[in-house]
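Postdoc handover notes: sequence design on the structure in folder B. Input C-alpha coordinates:
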Protein backbone atom coordinates (compact mmCIF):
# COMPACT_ATOMS: atom_id res chain seq x y z
CA UNK A 1 0.00 0.00 0.00
CA UNK A 2 1.44 3.34 -1.06
CA UNK A 3 1.50 6.17 1.43
CA UNK A 4 0.40 9.59 0.34
CA UNK A 5 3.38 11.93 0.82
CA UNK A 6 1.13 14.67 2.17
CA UNK A 7 -0.39 12.36 4.83
CA UNK A 8 3.05 11.21 5.93
CA UNK A 9 4.26 14.81 6.16
CA UNK A 10 1.32 15.66 8.41
CA UNK A 11 2.20 12.78 10.75
CA UNK A 12 5.85 13.81 10.89
CA UNK A 13 5.06 17.48 11.39
CA UNK A 14 4.54 16.86 15.15
CA UNK A 15 7.76 16.94 17.24
CA UNK A 16 8.62 13.33 18.06
CA UNK A 17 10.70 11.03 20.37
CA UNK A 18 12.97 12.10 23.21
CA UNK A 19 15.65 10.77 25.56
CA UNK A 20 14.62 8.23 28.10
CA UNK A 21 16.53 10.16 30.71
CA UNK A 22 16.26 13.85 29.92
CA UNK A 23 13.88 16.44 28.59
CA UNK A 24 10.50 16.67 27.00
CA UNK A 25 12.03 17.14 23.52
CA UNK A 26 15.09 15.61 21.90
CA UNK A 27 17.31 15.86 18.81
CA UNK A 28 19.52 12.90 17.84
CA UNK A 29 22.15 12.79 15.01
CA UNK A 30 22.49 9.16 13.89
CA UNK A 31 25.23 7.11 12.21
CA UNK A 32 24.92 3.46 11.27
CA UNK A 33 25.21 0.63 8.81
CA UNK A 34 22.42 -0.24 6.37
CA UNK A 35 22.16 -3.83 5.08
CA UNK A 36 19.40 -4.13 2.41
CA UNK A 37 17.77 -7.35 1.34
CA UNK A 38 18.58 -6.35 -2.25
CA UNK A 39 21.11 -3.78 -3.34
CA UNK A 40 24.30 -2.38 -1.92
CA UNK A 41 25.01 -2.23 1.84
CA UNK A 42 26.66 0.86 3.23
CA UNK A 43 26.74 3.68 5.72
CA UNK A 44 23.62 5.34 7.08
CA UNK A 45 23.35 8.99 8.22
CA UNK A 46 20.24 10.36 9.82
CA UNK A 47 18.60 12.84 12.15
CA UNK A 48 15.74 12.18 14.60
CA UNK A 49 13.55 14.58 16.56
CA UNK A 50 11.25 13.44 19.32
CA UNK A 51 8.64 14.16 21.98
CA UNK A 52 8.01 12.15 25.17
CA UNK A 53 4.25 11.79 25.60
CA UNK A 54 4.40 10.07 29.01
CA UNK A 55 7.45 8.91 30.98
CA UNK A 56 7.37 5.44 29.40
CA UNK A 57 6.32 6.34 25.81
CA UNK A 58 7.88 8.63 23.22
CA UNK A 59 7.26 9.30 19.48
CA UNK A 60 10.00 10.11 17.00
CA UNK A 61 10.35 11.45 13.42
CA UNK A 62 13.46 10.34 11.57
CA UNK A 63 15.06 11.27 8.24
CA UNK A 64 18.02 9.27 6.95
CA UNK A 65 20.12 8.51 3.92
CA UNK A 66 21.72 5.17 2.95
CA UNK A 67 23.82 4.28 -0.10
CA UNK A 68 20.87 3.83 -2.50
CA UNK A 69 17.84 4.68 -0.31
CA UNK A 70 16.29 7.63 1.50
CA UNK A 71 14.16 6.84 4.61
CA UNK A 72 11.46 8.91 6.26
CA UNK A 73 9.98 7.21 9.37
CA UNK A 74 7.64 7.76 12.28
CA UNK A 75 8.32 5.49 15.28
CA UNK A 76 7.08 4.85 18.80
CA UNK A 77 9.61 4.07 21.56
CA UNK A 78 8.43 2.25 24.70
CA UNK A 79 10.73 2.30 27.76
CA UNK A 80 9.03 1.13 31.01
CA UNK A 81 10.58 2.43 34.23
CA UNK A 82 10.94 -1.16 35.49
CA UNK A 83 13.55 -1.80 32.76
CA UNK A 84 15.71 1.20 33.62
CA UNK A 85 18.67 1.64 35.92
CA UNK A 86 20.28 4.87 37.13
CA UNK A 87 22.20 5.24 33.83
CA UNK A 88 20.73 2.71 31.36
CA UNK A 89 17.26 2.78 29.79
CA UNK A 90 16.40 -0.07 27.35
CA UNK A 91 13.55 0.44 24.88
CA UNK A 92 11.63 -1.24 22.02
CA UNK A 93 10.76 0.56 18.78
CA UNK A 94 7.90 0.14 16.27
CA UNK A 95 6.80 2.39 13.44
CA UNK A 96 6.20 2.97 9.74
CA UNK A 97 7.39 5.22 6.93
CA UNK A 98 8.46 5.38 3.29
CA UNK A 99 11.61 4.40 1.49
CA UNK A 100 12.80 6.09 -1.74
CA UNK A 101 15.05 3.81 -3.77
CA UNK A 102 17.51 5.31 -6.31
CA UNK A 103 18.67 2.03 -7.86
CA UNK A 104 18.27 -1.71 -7.54
CA UNK A 105 21.09 -4.01 -8.54
CA UNK A 106 22.89 -1.14 -10.28
CA UNK A 107 19.91 -0.33 -12.56
CA UNK A 108 18.40 3.11 -12.30
CA UNK A 109 14.85 2.59 -11.19
CA UNK A 110 13.51 5.12 -8.76
CA UNK A 111 10.52 4.18 -6.66
CA UNK A 112 8.84 4.86 -3.31
CA UNK A 113 7.78 1.97 -1.04
CA UNK A 114 5.97 1.67 2.27
CA UNK A 115 8.06 0.22 5.15
CA UNK A 116 7.46 -0.94 8.74
CA UNK A 117 10.10 -0.73 11.47
CA UNK A 118 10.69 -3.03 14.46
CA UNK A 119 13.70 -2.98 16.74
CA UNK A 120 15.21 -2.27 20.12
CA UNK A 121 18.03 -0.43 21.79
CA UNK A 122 19.21 1.39 24.85
CA UNK A 123 20.09 4.88 26.00
CA UNK A 124 23.13 5.39 28.25
CA UNK A 125 23.07 8.67 30.19
CA UNK A 126 26.25 10.77 29.89
CA UNK A 127 24.89 13.88 31.64
CA UNK A 128 21.60 15.58 32.49
CA UNK A 129 21.03 16.46 28.81
CA UNK A 130 23.17 14.04 26.75
CA UNK A 131 22.71 10.30 26.22
CA UNK A 132 24.50 7.79 24.01
CA UNK A 133 22.08 5.77 21.87
CA UNK A 134 22.54 2.29 20.32
CA UNK A 135 19.91 0.44 18.29
CA UNK A 136 19.25 -2.56 16.01
CA UNK A 137 16.29 -2.29 13.65
CA UNK A 138 14.55 -4.42 11.01
CA UNK A 139 12.93 -2.50 8.09
CA UNK A 140 10.24 -4.49 6.26
CA UNK A 141 9.22 -3.37 2.73
CA UNK A 142 5.58 -4.34 2.57
CA UNK A 143 5.33 -3.57 -1.17
CA UNK A 144 8.04 -6.04 -2.18
CA UNK A 145 8.21 -8.29 0.90
CA UNK A 146 11.85 -7.44 1.47
CA UNK A 147 13.54 -6.89 4.87
CA UNK A 148 16.52 -4.62 5.44
CA UNK A 149 18.54 -4.26 8.68
CA UNK A 150 19.91 -1.15 10.23
CA UNK A 151 22.48 -0.80 13.05
CA UNK A 152 22.52 2.68 14.57
CA UNK A 153 24.36 4.77 17.10
CA UNK A 154 23.85 8.39 18.02
CA UNK A 155 24.20 11.19 20.56
CA UNK A 156 20.83 12.32 21.88
CA UNK A 157 20.27 15.82 23.27
CA UNK A 158 17.25 16.35 25.57
CA UNK A 159 15.68 19.66 26.55
CA UNK A 160 12.40 21.32 27.57
CA UNK A 161 11.60 19.86 31.01
CA UNK A 162 9.89 16.57 31.76
CA UNK A 163 6.52 15.18 30.70
CA UNK A 164 3.74 15.16 33.27
CA UNK A 165 2.70 11.87 34.75
CA UNK A 166 -0.53 10.48 33.40
CA UNK A 167 -3.00 10.19 36.29
CA UNK A 168 -3.71 6.58 37.07
CA UNK A 169 -6.91 5.20 38.44
CA UNK A 170 -6.49 4.01 42.00
CA UNK A 171 -9.12 1.63 43.23
CA UNK A 172 -10.53 2.48 46.65
CA UNK A 173 -8.98 0.41 49.41
CA UNK A 174 -11.35 -1.46 51.62
CA UNK A 175 -10.72 -0.62 55.29
CA UNK A 176 -8.85 -3.44 57.04
CA UNK A 177 -9.25 -4.09 60.72
CA UNK A 178 -5.57 -4.29 61.76
CA UNK A 179 -4.95 -5.88 65.15
CA UNK A 180 -1.93 -4.24 66.81
CA UNK A 181 0.95 -6.65 67.33
CA UNK A 182 1.66 -8.02 70.81
CA UNK A 183 4.76 -10.17 70.30
CA UNK A 184 5.18 -11.41 73.87
CA UNK A 185 1.44 -11.91 74.42
CA UNK A 186 1.30 -9.94 77.67
CA UNK A 187 -1.76 -7.90 76.66
CA UNK A 188 0.23 -4.72 75.93
CA UNK A 189 0.71 -3.92 72.22
CA UNK A 190 4.29 -3.63 70.98
CA UNK A 191 3.95 0.11 70.35
CA UNK A 192 3.33 0.71 74.08
CA UNK A 193 5.41 -2.18 75.47
CA UNK A 194 8.57 -0.97 77.26
CA UNK A 195 9.51 -4.59 78.06
CA UNK A 196 8.77 -6.43 74.78
CA UNK A 197 10.22 -9.81 75.78
CA UNK A 198 8.35 -10.53 79.03
CA UNK A 199 8.14 -14.32 79.71
CA UNK A 200 4.76 -15.89 79.05
CA UNK A 201 2.30 -15.75 81.93
CA UNK A 202 4.00 -12.98 83.94
CA UNK A 203 1.91 -10.20 85.45
CA UNK A 204 2.67 -6.87 83.79
CA UNK A 205 1.72 -3.23 84.30
CA UNK A 206 0.22 -0.91 81.67
CA UNK A 207 3.68 -0.33 80.15
CA UNK A 208 4.23 -4.06 79.59
CA UNK A 209 6.92 -4.43 82.29
CA UNK A 210 6.67 -7.11 85.04
CA UNK A 211 4.85 -6.03 88.20
CA UNK A 212 7.00 -5.67 91.33
CA UNK A 213 4.68 -4.65 94.13
CA UNK A 214 7.27 -4.60 96.93
CA UNK A 215 9.88 -2.93 94.67
CA UNK A 216 12.60 -5.46 95.50
CA UNK A 217 13.49 -5.86 91.80
CA UNK A 218 12.05 -9.37 91.69
CA UNK A 219 8.85 -9.60 89.57
CA UNK A 220 5.68 -10.67 91.36
CA UNK A 221 5.40 -13.74 89.14
CA UNK A 222 8.58 -15.30 90.64
CA UNK A 223 8.64 -13.47 94.01
CA UNK A 224 8.28 -16.03 96.80
CA UNK A 225 8.17 -13.24 99.40
CA UNK A 226 5.93 -10.61 97.77
CA UNK A 227 5.73 -8.29 100.79
CA UNK A 228 9.42 -7.79 101.60
CA UNK A 229 9.95 -4.55 103.59
CA UNK A 230 11.36 -1.66 101.58
CA UNK A 231 15.14 -1.51 101.36
CA UNK A 232 15.79 -5.07 102.49
CA UNK A 233 18.28 -7.08 100.46
CA UNK A 234 16.70 -10.08 98.76
CA UNK A 235 17.85 -13.09 96.76
CA UNK A 236 16.79 -14.20 93.28
CA UNK A 237 13.53 -15.59 94.72
CA UNK A 238 12.58 -12.23 96.26
CA UNK A 239 13.08 -13.39 99.86
CA UNK A 240 15.38 -11.63 102.35
CA UNK A 241 18.95 -12.89 102.24
CA UNK A 242 20.01 -15.37 104.92
CA UNK A 243 23.58 -16.34 104.07
CA UNK A 244 24.12 -18.70 107.02
CA UNK A 245 20.69 -20.34 106.61
CA UNK A 246 19.80 -19.97 110.27
CA UNK A 247 16.32 -18.57 109.65
CA UNK A 248 17.24 -15.00 110.60
CA UNK A 249 17.63 -12.56 107.70
CA UNK A 250 21.00 -10.89 107.19
CA UNK A 251 19.52 -7.50 108.05
CA UNK A 252 18.64 -8.74 111.57
CA UNK A 253 21.42 -11.29 112.06
CA UNK A 254 23.82 -10.13 114.80
CA UNK A 255 25.89 -13.31 114.52
CA UNK A 256 26.43 -14.02 110.79
CA UNK A 257 28.16 -17.23 109.82
CA UNK A 258 26.43 -19.46 112.39
CA UNK A 259 26.88 -23.18 111.67
CA UNK A 260 23.93 -24.85 109.97
CA UNK A 261 23.21 -27.28 112.84
CA UNK A 262 23.25 -24.61 115.57
CA UNK A 263 19.97 -23.45 117.15
CA UNK A 264 19.79 -19.62 117.15
CA UNK A 265 17.71 -16.94 118.83
CA UNK A 266 15.75 -14.16 117.10
CA UNK A 267 19.01 -12.21 116.61
CA UNK A 268 20.70 -15.07 114.79
CA UNK A 269 23.06 -15.88 117.68
CA UNK A 270 23.61 -19.41 119.04
CA UNK A 271 21.45 -20.52 121.96
CA UNK A 272 23.39 -22.07 124.82
CA UNK A 273 22.71 -24.17 127.91
CA UNK A 274 24.73 -23.98 131.13
CA UNK A 275 24.84 -26.89 133.56
CA UNK A 276 26.70 -27.82 136.70
CA UNK A 277 29.37 -30.49 136.23
CA UNK A 278 30.94 -32.40 139.13
CA UNK A 279 34.15 -34.39 138.87
CA UNK A 280 36.52 -36.12 141.28
CA UNK A 281 39.49 -34.05 142.44
CA UNK A 282 42.81 -35.56 141.37
CA UNK A 283 46.37 -34.40 141.89
CA UNK A 284 49.26 -36.13 140.13
CA UNK A 285 52.64 -35.67 141.79
CA UNK A 286 56.08 -36.19 140.32
CA UNK A 287 58.35 -38.12 142.69
CA UNK A 288 61.37 -39.92 141.25
CA UNK A 289 62.32 -43.00 143.22
CA UNK A 290 65.61 -44.79 142.97
CA UNK A 291 65.39 -48.09 141.16
CA UNK A 292 63.59 -50.71 143.22
CA UNK A 293 63.34 -48.21 146.11
CA UNK A 294 60.35 -46.59 147.85
CA UNK A 295 62.17 -43.90 149.90
CA UNK A 296 61.03 -40.29 149.18
CA UNK A 297 64.03 -38.06 148.71
CA UNK A 298 64.00 -34.70 150.52
CA UNK A 299 63.85 -32.74 147.25
CA UNK A 300 60.44 -34.27 146.49
CA UNK A 301 58.73 -33.35 149.76
CA UNK A 302 57.20 -30.37 147.97
CA UNK A 303 55.25 -32.79 145.75
CA UNK A 304 53.76 -34.45 148.85
CA UNK A 305 52.93 -31.01 150.21
CA UNK A 306 50.64 -30.51 147.19
CA UNK A 307 48.51 -33.42 148.39
CA UNK A 308 48.55 -32.07 151.92
CA UNK A 309 47.23 -28.72 150.75
CA UNK A 310 44.55 -30.44 148.72
CA UNK A 311 43.48 -32.55 151.70
CA UNK A 312 43.30 -29.51 154.01
CA UNK A 313 41.27 -27.59 151.44
CA UNK A 314 38.73 -30.40 151.38
CA UNK A 315 38.52 -31.25 155.11
CA UNK A 316 35.82 -33.91 154.83
CA UNK A 317 37.32 -35.71 151.85
CA UNK A 318 39.05 -39.06 151.94
CA UNK A 319 42.33 -39.40 150.06
CA UNK A 320 43.50 -42.42 148.09
CA UNK A 321 47.17 -42.54 147.14
CA UNK A 322 47.69 -44.59 143.95
CA UNK A 323 51.13 -45.98 143.11
CA UNK A 324 52.12 -47.03 139.56
CA UNK A 325 55.21 -48.46 137.88
CA UNK A 326 56.40 -49.08 134.32
CA UNK A 327 56.32 -52.55 132.76
CA UNK A 328 59.99 -53.38 133.34
CA UNK A 329 60.72 -56.36 135.55
CA UNK A 330 58.45 -58.88 137.25
CA UNK A 331 54.78 -57.78 137.42
CA UNK A 332 54.33 -59.14 140.95
CA UNK A 333 57.38 -57.28 142.18
CA UNK A 334 56.18 -54.11 140.39
CA UNK A 335 52.87 -54.28 142.22
CA UNK A 336 54.63 -54.69 145.57
CA UNK A 337 56.97 -51.78 144.72
CA UNK A 338 54.06 -49.54 143.72
CA UNK A 339 52.29 -50.35 146.98
CA UNK A 340 55.41 -49.47 148.98
CA UNK A 341 55.81 -46.15 147.19
CA UNK A 342 52.12 -45.24 147.72
CA UNK A 343 52.46 -46.20 151.41
CA UNK A 344 55.57 -44.00 151.72
CA UNK A 345 53.59 -40.99 150.49
CA UNK A 346 50.68 -41.84 152.80
CA UNK A 347 52.98 -42.09 155.82
CA UNK A 348 54.62 -38.74 155.02
CA UNK A 349 51.18 -37.08 154.82
CA UNK A 350 50.31 -38.47 158.26
CA UNK A 351 53.63 -37.94 160.03
CA UNK A 352 54.93 -34.74 158.41
CA UNK A 353 51.75 -32.89 157.49
CA UNK A 354 49.33 -34.03 160.17
CA UNK A 355 46.70 -35.54 157.91
CA UNK A 356 44.57 -37.96 160.00
CA UNK A 357 45.40 -41.59 159.21
CA UNK A 358 41.67 -42.36 158.96
CA UNK A 359 41.43 -40.12 155.88
CA UNK A 360 44.27 -41.68 153.89
CA UNK A 361 44.51 -44.99 152.03
CA UNK A 362 47.39 -46.30 149.83
CA UNK A 363 46.95 -48.73 146.91
CA UNK A 364 49.60 -50.08 144.53
CA UNK A 365 48.57 -50.92 140.93
CA UNK A 366 51.95 -51.96 139.61
CA UNK A 367 52.15 -51.67 135.82
CA UNK A 368 48.47 -52.48 135.21
CA UNK A 369 47.39 -48.88 134.39
CA UNK A 370 49.97 -47.37 132.01
CA UNK A 371 49.38 -43.87 130.64
CA UNK A 372 52.20 -43.98 128.08
CA UNK A 373 54.17 -46.37 125.88
CA UNK A 374 56.31 -48.72 128.01
CA UNK A 375 58.72 -49.36 125.11
CA UNK A 376 60.35 -45.91 125.38
CA UNK A 377 62.32 -44.29 128.19
CA UNK A 378 60.02 -41.27 128.18
CA UNK A 379 56.93 -43.45 128.31
CA UNK A 380 58.29 -45.50 131.20
CA UNK A 381 59.07 -42.33 133.18
CA UNK A 382 55.46 -41.18 132.76
CA UNK A 383 54.14 -44.54 133.95
CA UNK A 384 56.21 -44.37 137.21
CA UNK A 385 53.82 -42.01 139.00
CA UNK A 386 51.89 -41.40 142.22
CA UNK A 387 48.37 -39.93 142.15
CA UNK A 388 46.20 -38.62 144.99
CA UNK A 389 42.46 -39.01 144.44
CA UNK A 390 39.99 -37.27 146.76
CA UNK A 391 36.47 -38.47 147.32
CA UNK A 392 35.47 -34.81 147.13
CA UNK A 393 34.18 -33.42 143.85
CA UNK A 394 34.81 -30.06 142.25
CA UNK A 395 31.85 -28.34 140.70
CA UNK A 396 32.09 -26.21 137.52
CA UNK A 397 29.57 -24.57 135.22
CA UNK A 398 29.82 -25.76 131.60
CA UNK A 399 28.17 -23.80 128.81
CA UNK A 400 27.15 -25.80 125.69
CA UNK A 401 25.92 -24.52 122.33
CA UNK A 402 22.51 -25.97 121.46
CA UNK A 403 22.41 -27.92 118.20
CA UNK A 404 19.69 -29.44 116.07
CA UNK A 405 19.27 -33.22 116.17
CA UNK A 406 20.89 -35.05 113.27
CA UNK A 407 18.46 -36.12 110.60
CA UNK A 408 17.83 -39.84 110.34
CA UNK A 409 19.10 -41.43 107.13
CA UNK A 410 16.30 -43.24 105.34
CA UNK A 411 15.88 -45.86 102.65
CA UNK A 412 18.73 -47.09 100.50
CA UNK A 413 21.15 -44.49 101.85
CA UNK A 414 20.67 -45.85 105.40
CA UNK A 415 21.29 -49.42 104.25
CA UNK A 416 24.35 -48.36 102.30
CA UNK A 417 25.70 -46.38 105.24
CA UNK A 418 25.09 -49.34 107.58
CA UNK A 419 27.04 -51.67 105.29
CA UNK A 420 29.94 -49.24 105.16
CA UNK A 421 29.99 -48.99 108.98
CA UNK A 422 29.94 -52.78 109.36
CA UNK A 423 32.76 -53.18 106.84
CA UNK A 424 34.83 -50.56 108.65
CA UNK A 425 34.21 -52.21 112.04
CA UNK A 426 35.22 -55.59 110.63
CA UNK A 427 38.41 -54.10 109.20
CA UNK A 428 39.38 -52.71 112.63
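Designed sequence:
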Amino acid sequence: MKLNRIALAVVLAAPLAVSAQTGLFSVTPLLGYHSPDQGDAGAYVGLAAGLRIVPAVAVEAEFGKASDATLLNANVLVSPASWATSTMSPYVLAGFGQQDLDAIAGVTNKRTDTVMNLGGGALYSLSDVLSLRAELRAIHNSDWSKTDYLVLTGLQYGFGGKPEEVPQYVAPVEPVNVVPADTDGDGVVDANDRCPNTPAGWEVSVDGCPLDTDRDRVPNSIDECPNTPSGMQVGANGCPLDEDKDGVTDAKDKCPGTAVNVIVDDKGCAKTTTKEVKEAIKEEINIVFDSSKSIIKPEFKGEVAKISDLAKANGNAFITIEGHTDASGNPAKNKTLSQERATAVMNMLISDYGIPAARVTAIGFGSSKPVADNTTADGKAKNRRVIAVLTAEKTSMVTTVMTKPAKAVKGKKAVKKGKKGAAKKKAN
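Context for whoever picks this up: The two ends are 130 Å apart (CA to CA). Don't rerun without checking with the PI first.
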